[in-house]
Amino acid sequence: MGYATVQRVPRIHDYAQALRIHDNIKPLRGRSPEIKPLGARRDADTYHVRMNGEAVELVLYRTPVITFMPDGEVVLFIDSYNTVATQQFISHVLGIGANGVRRTTVLTINNSKYTLANQDKLRLRRGDRGWEVLNPMQQWTWRLDRKAVSNVRAQYGEFYKYLKGFVSLRTEHMAVSRWQLEEKDFVCVQQSEFKSAFKSALGSMTSVRSYAYMDKRGRQSLDWNPVKPEQYKASSNAFACLIRPDQPEEDKHNNFYKAALLLVAKLEVDSMDIRVDSVRVRSKHIVPLLDDVLFMMNAHQVLVRKALPQGKVSSGIYENWMLEWE
């Protein structure tokens, strides 16, 4: 289905017109329950019109996306289907702008923007200036709290200092690739160095891969498989043990070194399954990855909920961290 089929759906201005369209359309022969196509009859399974009590519902597939109420209100509901089809349907029927922004439908009404997401129901009424929104939806986002972030970094300050020194010492300025001669800063680690540090058997990187879930808090996936909470907790707790500031001094340097190598491995491949002889990652990405890992571990302390201005949509950077596991 594309915009060509949406163009066959009528523009509707009010309840009386919606009711008249419903009453004048003949149902498809032989269909039970009765179905009245909205637009071309061959598109009946995509768009149809039905009554729900006295309300007239315009249905896209199985979702009553637009409902005209007898009192003049119009209710919009996308049932979490933030799709181009949904947006085109709303736009063509009501004559308002609709587009998708990060899993949220954004409507443009009288030069103002309004959001519609998940199970929200947005109510409209036609006024002197066209459609007016009766219940603007509040959108929220997660933001880092600077003081809490500073506290987490201070808690692991000794490892941050070590890691910055590791990056500085190991950084090499080299061409990006054979075909791209521009030079940038990289940290290079041989596979043999990983094996030596983690004392893995030749050809096995199992101990490195066991840390692969350490940056997968919340509803995330690894190699297209949903991450389980116990997987994340095991990986992140094991990594946290390596960078603890209160560990015995005789173990600290070796564990810090292992943690630095793990961050390199994670940047090389998400599964941390190192199969190449030499790993090369951008130097500037190593410390920010540590930030991510530690902020995930302390998400409830470093993240705060903030209301967004009307029509704005969350960037989604931290949303997955705070989605509880099912």
Explain what this protein looks like in three dimensions.
The chain is an alpha+beta fold and 326 residues long. It has two domains: 3-137, no CATH class; 142-305, no CATH class. It has helices at residues 3-6, 15-24, 84-94, 146-155, 157-170, 191-198, 206-209, 229-242, 249-268, 286-297, 299-302; strands at residues 36-37, 47-52, 55-60, 63-68, 73-77, 97-101, 104-109, 112-116, 121-127, 130-133, 140-144, 171-175, 183-190, 221-222, 225-226, 278-282, 303-307. The strands form five sheets. It has a seven-stranded antiparallel β-sheet. It has a three-stranded antiparallel β-sheet with strand order 6-7-8. A three-stranded antiparallel β-sheet has the order 12-13-16. A hairpin with a 4-residue loop joins strand 4 and strand 5. The longest helix has 20 residues, at 249-268. The protein is elongated, with a radius of gyration of 28 Å. The protein starts with a helix and ends in a 19-residue tail after the last strand. The mean pLDDT is 89.
Class by SSE composition: alpha+beta
Major β-sheet profile: 7 strands, antiparallel
H and E string: HHEEEEEHEEEEEEHHEEHHEEHHEHHE
Number of domains: 2
Number of strands: 17
- Low-confidence segments, given as residue ranges, are none
Helix residue percentage: 25-40%
Q: How large, in whole angstroms, is the Cα Rg? A: 28 Å
Tell the overall outline.
Answer: elongated
Taking all residues together, what is the mean pLDDT? 89
Strand content: 25-35%
Total helical elements: 11
Question: Keyphrases for this structure?
Answer:
three-stranded antiparallel beta sheet; single chain; alpha+beta; 326 residues; 2 domains; seven-stranded antiparallel beta sheet; 26% strand; 17 strands; elongated
